[in-house]
Amino acid sequence: MQNKINEIKNYVVEKLSGINAQADCQALRVEILGKSGKVTELFKLLKDVPEEKGKVGQILNAGKAEIDALISNKEKALANAEIEKEINSAEKIDITLPTGAECGSLHPRTIIQREIEEVFTSMGFVVEDGNEVETEYNNFTAVNVPENHPARDMQDTFWLDNGEVLKTHTSASQNRILKKYAPPIRAIFPGRCFRNEDVDASHENTFFQLEGVIVDKDVSVGNLIYFMKEMLSKIFKKQVEVRLRPGFFPFTEPSFEMDVRCPFCDGKGCPTCKNGGWIELCPCGMIHPQVLRNGGIDPEVYSGCAFGLGLDRMTMLSFNLNDIRELNSGNLKLLKQFKIK
Ligand code: DAH
Q: Ligand 1 centroid vs 263 CA: distance in angstroms?
């Protein structure tokens, strides 16, 4: 048996010396070690060996392993030679060459939205999505704007045949969020809004807001001022000052308009603040008890505040843009300036 194995080994060595391709190695492996290969046939004879089956078996196993190693080594050598050849070949790829492919970029509004989201999440807020198509109830009634209320006129929008609307403000998501979370709640929800509006440099029929709600025991206007100041200071990269003026919204009581001392001239007066020193930035207020009740929250136990930041306005301020229409224009000349480096 040892002789037979040696014969096969010699045959393999000779064959391997003439092989230059990995595929031929594989063919040789099948010829010798495959199902009806030469070595496999020898194993089949084992059952007829009268004595010393164990010893003969050992000889066969050792021979098989040796042959297997011979073929594997040759395969490895051929694979390495292939790599060497490629490395040394004249064909070199210059990975620093420009590919000519254009790289996209984030929309300026997305950049600001993400920055604001980051500040609020660092203060324990969740970020929620809102629907663009909303029920009339969520958009109006749930936030205390019943049918025939004049506030509905100011937010004329696009109505669908089934009676639903394209949401006119992110406040439309308040009811879902109040119902989804039990107090304490800290949530922001950015989203696209629509109004049946004549378009000019500061009005769009399609625009973005970023709404926030805070509901807990003993929430006060102080909390609202704190969170807004924190956010604005991070976005404008300096400590900002804010002030509240009285406002009116059916869903807050009291309601305010929040102004920020112009971060560009520190209040001295410049074109951005129209020389007034303050920039009107964000309507806000204490959530009306009826809105809490509509969201399943007891206003005797909990109170809340809310704000509706104009995301387009924040974007325009941050990037010194003066026409809101640019933001939906797809104007590449403008957008390319925000390319990711
Ligand atoms: N939803 C209002 C609008 O679009 C803005 C607003 C005002 C949102 C006061 C609020 C708020 O959350 O408290 O005109």
A: 23
